[in-house]
Amino acid sequence: MHDKDNILGNLVRTVGLIEDSEIFCKYIPEVRTNIAYALPNATSCKEVAAIEGRITVVNNKPKACGYPKFGASSHLARAIIEMIKENPEKRAAINIKGDKEFAKYLKSKIKLVEIDRSKEPKEVSKKENLSTQWKVREALKKEKKLDAIYSFGAVGKEDIIVLFGEDAYSLVKKILLLIEEAENDFQ
Q1: Percent share of the chain, pLDDT over 70
Q2: Distance CA 170, CA 32 (A)
Q3: DSSP label at 65?
């Protein structure tokens, strides 16, 4: 129970960081952002907490639709579960807009792996809930200690960047710093 309480508390503080950052709105994808954090050695989505209803934009500010809850995410939960098979310390993940320029910037700062979804095998893309694990496995083949995956090129699917970290709060602090640096560089 102690681990679960710590994870939920970490996510509550993390949401506060995101909601205080107006610039983060620019990085929220159409599918909306979520942040997830898993119990050690998680093997099911029920062992991963995330924000129920995701994080959206309200009055030009990021806004969580609900509270952190175990089992609230399928997509990010599956990504984390696949990641911790190789990197058990990387128990948190967040998805942001897959902007090509920002992905290029991130690649110069962290270990970001690009995955071209047009190369995704048909048996994976046609079956529900297999793409996420495929993307993580493909990325890990290229870089065992990766920090982020930029997936692009799938017809009808939004380009997305998924970043991984040891806990949700430190992951988001790092991302917000990278966003701030990138915004200054882009001007």
Answers
A1: 99
A2: 20
A3: S
